Amino acid sequence: MLISLEQILGIAEARKIAVGSFNITSLEVAQSVLRAAEELNQPVILQSAPGHSNLIAVNEIGPILVLMAEKSHVPVCVHLDHGETLEDVHQALEMGFTSVMYDGSALSFEENVANTRAAVEMAWDYGASVEAEMGFMGREEFASAGEEVEGEAFSGVYTDPEQAKEFVEATQIDALACSFGTVHGIYMQEPCLDFDRIKAIKDKINKPIVMHGGSGVSDEDFKKCIANGVRKINYYTYLAKEAGEVVRDKCAKAKENLFYHDIMLWGMEAMKKNAKHAISVFSNLQ
Fold it and tell me: Are 165 and 42 in contact (CB under 8 A)?
């Protein structure tokens, strides 16, 4: 069942859970994640990003994701992740995506507001939802990724609650990706998350909070983030990492002919197992 981000996060808010939003870099990833969600009977978000074009372009995987979502028996949102231009946003909407993220976090506050507002007005014409970002989740900004000052992040890159309120009121977005101590990619040490900041932002904007850089966060910390207002959690790195480790182990033990379809199936089973665990945590099933 294909639904919008606003609708799927409405389900999450009613149940006080978060919906897993998985980056789809191949058909096998999409199949694994969707099977995990269906086996658990939980909503899920399938997302594709322009930055994944070296693996599969948005315009190649996008129509497939929309079709898979329409045929699924659980609520599914198809989402554009980190669209950096309004052209990216328009392309996704034309393909039938029910949600788009315009990422203007590298711009000035004023430019981010103006471009995000344009994305919102564009999405309204398609009945779609919009996520935007304030603050930074790149590894270069945070020492919590294991670089520079141990265990601390530079406070200037955290999302300010008052500015978040101003941003949401000016843009009318449906969800806000905030910076509170997570980073994209693999953590070199335990992340330092600001749970109070999540709650402060949620109280100010009264909109769902999106968590980027979720891979590597402990189950306990995921639950604390959800309790404080996170309703969408982006997830991919450790899903792919676990599948890679399983495939490496299986290949090392293979004694006869090794076929690509065997490798693909090993990876898919590992990804489904990892996705089921993540979705279970996000949905408070364990």
Answer: no
The Cα angle at residue 81 between residues 91 and 1, in degrees rounded to 5: 80
> With 70 as the cut, is the pLDDT of residue 153 above it?
no
Q: Are 176 and 132 in contact (CB under 8 A)?
A: yes
pLDDT at residue 158, rounded to an integer: 85
- Percentages helix, strand, coil for the chain (3-state, rounded to 5) are 50, 15, 35
pLDDT in tens, 53-112: 889 999 999 999 999 999 999 999 999 999 999 999 999 999 999 999 999 998 999 999
Q: Transcribe 157-184 into DSSP letters.
A: GSPPHHHHHHHHHHH--SEEEE-SS--S
d(CA 202, CA 195): 11
Q: Which residues are catalytically annotated?
A: 81
Question: Is the distance from CB of 84 to CB of 50 less than 8 angstroms?
Answer: yes
Give CA–CA dist 208/12, Å, rounded: 9
Contact call for residues 51 and 83 (beta carbons, < 8 A) = no
List all residues 6 or more positions away from 272 whose beta carbon is below 8 Å from its beta carbon. Answer: 32, 33, 35, 36
Is the CB of residue 215 less than 8 Å from the CB of residue 186?
A: yes
> What pLDDT does residue 256 have?
84
pLDDT at 190: 56
Domains of the chain are 5-282 (3.20.20.70)
Please count the helices (runs of H) and the strands (runs of E) in the chain: 10, 8
Residues 6, 276: Cα–Cα separation, whole Å: 23
> In whole numbers, what is the pLDDT of the chain averaged over residues?
90
